Amino acid sequence: MADWDVLVAGGGNAALCAAIAAARQGRRVLVVEAAPKFYRGGNTRHTRNMRCAHDEATSTLTGPYSEDEFFEDLMRVTDGNTDEALSRMMIAKSKPMLGWIQQQGVRFQPSLGGTISLGRTNSFFLGGGRSMLNALYRTAEGLGVEIRYEHEVIGLDIRERRFHAATVRSRDGEEVIRAAAFVAACGGFQADIDWLKQGWGEKAENFLIRGTPYNRGTVTRMLIDSGVMQIGDASQCHAVAIDARAPRYDGGIITRLDCVVLGVVVNTAAERFYDEGEDIWPKRYAIWGRLVANQPDQKAFIIFDAPNIPRFMPSLYPPISAPSLRELASKLELDPDVFERTINEFNSAVIDGKPFDTNAKDGNTTEGLAINKTNWAQRIETPPYYAYPVRPGITFTYLGVKVDHDARMVMADGAPSDNLFAAGEIMAGNVLGQGYAAGIGMTIGAVFGRIAGEEAARHVA
Description:
Elements: E1 4-9, H1 13-23, E2 29-33, E3 49-51, H2 67-78, H3 84-103, E4 108-109, E5 122-125, H4 128-142, E6 146-149, E7 152-159, E8 162-170, E9 173-184, H5 193-200, E10 208-209, H6 218-225, E11 230-231, E12 237-243, E13 264-267, H7 281-284, H8 288-293, E14 300-305, E15 320-322, H9 325-331, H10 336-349, E16 350-351, E17 365-366, E18 385-397, E19 400-401, E20 408-410, E21 416-422, H11 440-460
Helix pairs in contact: 1-4, 1-11, 2-3, 3-11, 9-10
């Protein structure tokens, strides 16, 4: 006889949505979280919002966001590298998710100032990710879900497409836990630098990990080794440009920088290397981690001037400033002559005259440069001048396990598993073959978490 109806591995948004959904069906649910209680929740601790389709404006959303528009945005950021049928299903189920997750105690607020272009598409959590997470934990525990912290899954007994038990290690030793159904919702492997190197090589040594050091992908490895189908590759991930002064782990949302569209980005050779105005920021901010990763020393600098300081959310760390471009270059340890030439050439190429608007492509561009800035081009000419040093910040990886529309894991031979389910970052690669749009990670976790919990409960029945 099983010890539990449903065993959930993980402690973030996806895991809690699965646990709550199963518990609401009357099932006995155990959640095992590898991290200590303070660090519970993985990347959910650092989130601010989630992206859901909706038909009209609300008290916290400024307008409608249709399923078709959501799907078009997803296709654009992934360049079509997604399971279209699965993604359309997720988007359709994101509409009722706004109501369902509020029923679990989560509250929303209007878009935060400085969060460029998100007020219509994304719902912001009142109090941020930790507040959202705390609400889900309160609801889960109120439904009788048992939570065990510092309990790491180190072994899985999977035979003939069926989960039988998990070996879990805690301070008290090792324990075998049997369950009628298993939900893997324990994140990616971004904290395993050696695994990242399989996709990125030695560059990964310079990557910063935005979340905790507990997401090492041990369950992902065990599932694949046990015959579950792998999707994705080790080089695909949600990677953004974050403040280079952030700690190696757990810097979180406060180290992210949203000011790229307001200036220019140069590498350590003081040269620009990509169009900073390619598209609306929430649809393109996640390309900058990969871009910086391919620059010398995996480092770059965002450069802007005084009028842009109030237009974005700053990092935890203050920008580096100077009264002249040459002095700024010296502080950044860049060649002053090359740096000054890069900025002056950019300024001379700016063709402006249209209203400056960060909520839409404004057509203010440059002409004649090897790499033109196609929107939001404005001269960097008003001192003081500012810079943020940035490095690649890895949020989560896309290599994971294949699932079907019921969040059921698919085996390597294409057959569905019997009682294995997955939600969140561990299966995000089904939707995100590459690229990212702001808030979609939370959508994947919540939608597939709810499905996984309900389907696991149905399997037990």
